[in-house]
Amino acid sequence: MKNLIIVISLLLEISVVNYAGEFADYPTKGKQFNTMVFRFEENLNFENPFDLQTNKVELHIQQPDETFLTISFFYNGLNEKNVEKWEARFAPKLFGNHKIQVTINDVIRKQFQIPVEVNKEQKQGGLTLASYYGLFKYESGESFRGIGMNICWADDYEYYFKKMKNAGMNITRIWMCPWNLSIEWAHTGLGKYDLKSAEKFDEILKLAEKYGIFIILCMDYHGVAQNRAGFFNENKWLENPYNKLNGGPCADGSELFTNETAKTFFKQKYKYIISRYGHSSNIASWEFYNEVDLMAGKAIPVNQWHVEMAEYVQSIDIHNRLVSSSATRNYPEKVVDAFKSPAIDFLMYHHYNIPDMAPYVLDLHRAMNEYYQKPFILGEFGVEYRGGDRTYSIDPQHIGLHNGIWAGFFSLTPVIPLSWWWDNYIDKYDIWSEYKNLSEFSNQIDINTKRLEFKELQSGFLIAQNHQAPCLVNCIYHGDNAALWFKNDKYQWSLVHEGERLEEIGIFTQSIPNLSEGAFSLIWFNPQTGNFTGGKTNVNVGKDGILTLKVPPFTKDIACIIKKVK
After folding, report:
1. Is residue 238 part of a domain?
2. Statement to judge: residues 107 and 210 lie in one domain
3. Please, are residues 390 and 231 in contact by the beta-carbon 8 Å criterion?
4. Residue 381 within a domain
5. Do 184 and 283 sit in the same domain of this protein?
6. Which residues pair with 185 in a beta bridge?
7. Which residues neighbour 450 within 8 Å (Cβ) at sequence distance 6 or greater?
8. CA distance 224 to 227
9. pLDDT tens digits for 407-465?
10. SS (H, E, C) 25-61
11. Does residue 98 sit in the same domain as residue 200?
12. What domain range is 221 assigned to?
């Protein structure tokens, strides 16, 4: 009935109630995928102005295709005259005339129209699912593949975003947690939100737009109610405002997933976050929890909670940002049903202390894609979970990082594995070149093609010794072209740490099937230095579609780009 009233009022342009406050700022025109901001200042005198479920301060939008959207205004504090500030943010996906109504508790307070012009620029809008697990895509239609790392908290995000952009990176994870962007915690009380933290994330989003960085926003971390102290003593349940000892509704941490009052407060918080930040195309995804399987709570209620919250978020998020959560692989039963649910767009696992990184990463991606039948991202990885300095002490050559991101790049995933220890490992020891080198190589691959296949090939035979070359061989077919990565089986951090001596792999012949007949150009790439070497050479593929390639000697790894000559 409410929607019917809105439709009728929009179509008939009925008279509206005189607006008591000054609707001081709203756009007169817009552009597809670009944010429009609507503001007014008025004391609405709600008991809790942060509660956007009970208090309906709404922007109703009739789109050019006659569909309807509703987004909430969010409370943004007081002005210098102690008058409440309210704001709504909307990024239109369609071009054409948009009819707008502002309502407060279903009473129409203002209505107007905004023409939205078409956006002809490429790579516009947020990220959506593609028809293929190895990609996301922009709302404007182009394909997206992420190269990034975790920067879950930082004092200076511009510093890191600049470094990321210079290294060719485009995605990160950021946490909301008690020490970073803390929206709701002991200092605010339950259902009240920290506006300084909220404004800080507004600024981070502006920086993300400036530097071309997408953000997976993790809205809670496992330490708010962990099932034990944890290696870092991260269990913060005694400080948690949901704890009964602090006036909350839950007797223990497991009740976060079963208590109905707690669920109501979670939905209220998500609605505020989505209303405030969902407009930004730089929000890649909402992530409910970091490593939720480590939290107090049994498998069935944790799974059910995720499905309920994901369905709720999808019902209120008019910008349709992706939805996910993350877990370690310690207790996968706590998320397995949720990850299978259509309400979760993609899944994330975290894994550390992997002795042989490359084959593990390749196998994990294959297994997760096959089992869950949806995109999988390795949201955190590393050779040592207990610290950046420990990581450096056992892997000073950053072999684990190198093999993890290169194996991930050749895996069926929309985002390569996201490394941890951004501050006291990657930045401290200036390992940014690993990402720069990979991005230089990735720039040669066209992902906007009808054919994109990830294959692991059987390695070829050494010419001098007539036995199989001891290396991984991975291939990405893109259109008529191909990219390959060859890695020495013994090039792994654990063996090097134990003193294993790397021996050069001599010349061997490698068969590359499933190419089209004709002439190709070939260029070799050194993943260690980021340089293309030796110049381009021409090779030919016969009617059988097999290229027999002579691979030059290498010790660690080598890659190449093969392109069809037009």
Report:
1. yes
2. no
3. no
4. no
5. yes
6. none
7. 479
8. 10
9. 999 999 999 999 999 999 999 999 999 999 999 999 999 999 999 999 999 999 999 88
10. ECCCCEECCCCEEEEEECCCCCCCCCCCCCCCEEEEE
11. no
12. 157-345
* Rounded to 5°, angle at Cα 132 from 415 and 408: 30
State the Cα–Cα distance between residues 481 and 291, nearest whole angstrom: 38
Strand 36-41 versus strand 84-90 pairing type: antiparallel
CA 290 from centroid of its chain's CA atoms = 13
Q: What are phi and psi of 390, to 5 degrees?
A: -65, -40
Residues 6+ apart with CB under 8 A from 542: 517
pLDDT digits (tens, 9 = 90+) for 243-278: 999 999 999 999 999 999 999 999 999 999 999 999
Pair (162, 39) in one structural domain? no
Please name the amino acid found at residue 150.
N
Q: Does residue 166 sit in the same domain as residue 307?
A: yes
> Is there a domain that residue 320 lies in?
yes
> Residue 22 belongs to what H/E stretch?
strand 22-25
d(CA 178, CA 222): 11
Q: Where among 308, 328, 345 does a domain terminate? A: 345
What number of CA atoms fall less than 13 Å from residue 217's CA on the CB side? 26
User: Of 451, 459, 455, which is closest to residue 505 (Cα–Cα)?
Assistant: 459
Specify the pTM.
0.95
417 near 376, Cβ under 8 Å? no
Q: Please say whether the beta carbons of 470 and 488 come within 8 A.
A: yes
Cα 21–Cα 22–Cα 24 angle in degrees, nearest 5? 145
